[in-house]
Design brief:
Layout lengths: L1 H19 L1 E7 L5 H9 L1 H7 L7 E10 L5 E9 L7 E8 L2 E9 L4 E2 L1
Antiparallel strand pairs: 1-3, 1-5, 2-3, 2-6, 4-5
Organism: Fusarium oxysporum f. sp. lycopersici (strain 4287 / CBS 123668 / FGSC 9935 / NRRL 34936) (Fusarium vascular wilt of tomato)
Protein name: Secreted in xylem 9
Keywords: Signal
Length: 114
């Protein structure tokens, strides 16, 4: 009986963790700032200051081509985010090493990235 309770608890925890994971993609509005965007997103303090909804940790980050349901594609720095990201599209201004730039992030639950 105890084993059954442990398994049920583990499944509940895993399901909750899975539900919290969101695929997010960000891109600089001017591609010359792609390097700054990567640096900003890898810096937890700068990332949280630029967008408080991105203050939590993430993993599996890399540049990918993402397409929306209309087959419009662009290059995004995507990552698995361990917290819900409530925005379908959100534009922000970030600062890293004293340089400001504009970027946008999207929630790719409805998109596809390769």
């Amino acid at each position: 009986m105890k084993l059954l309770a442990v398994v049920a608890t583990a499944l509940a925890v895993f399901s909750t963790a899975e539900a919290q994971t969101t695929q997010v993609g960000c891109r600089a509005l001017d591609t010359k700032n792609d390097g700054l965007l990567t640096e900003l997103l890898l810096n937890p303090s700068a990332r949280g200051a630029a967008d408080p909804d991105l203050r939590y940790g993430f993993w599996d980050a890399k540049w990918r081509k993402c397409c929306n349901k209309y087959k419009e594609c662009d290059k995004y720095y995507t990552f698995s985010y361990n917290h819900p990201y409530p925005w379908a599209y959100r534009q922000r201004r970030g600062t890293i090493r004293g340089q400001q730039f504009d970027f946008a992030c999207v929630n790719w639950r409805t998109g596809a990235c390769k």
